[in-house]
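>> received
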Amino acid sequence: EVQLLESGGGLVQPGGSLRLSCVASGFTFGSSDMSWVRQAPGKGPEWVSVIYSGGTFTRYADSVKGRFTISRDNAKNTLYLQMNSLKPEDTAVYYCARRTSYAASWLDSFRSWGQGTQVTVSL
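>> returned
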């Protein structure tokens, strides 16, 4: 059974930082491309970032480019998202996602999500 367990969310002030983690099990993590996806209240899901299985290929949504960094430790079956210079518009539930297909969009390619971790950016 595929399990993705996110942690590290919380309440942070604008300009602050958080580091999200996702521990994976039930599949060969080291062979799987992984993403982060977020969903803000009342909005649809938004793809945030991707990292390929070897860890050398990464891409970011324009909304987070230069502020967020995705990384992985295949020996620990763990995916990370370092989030700096956080803004109120980054408030969302953040989901770790495993690739399920090679679709036209990043969001459609990563449809296996964890339970999510809440990130709230507010004074």
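>> DSSP finds one helix and eleven strands in the chain.
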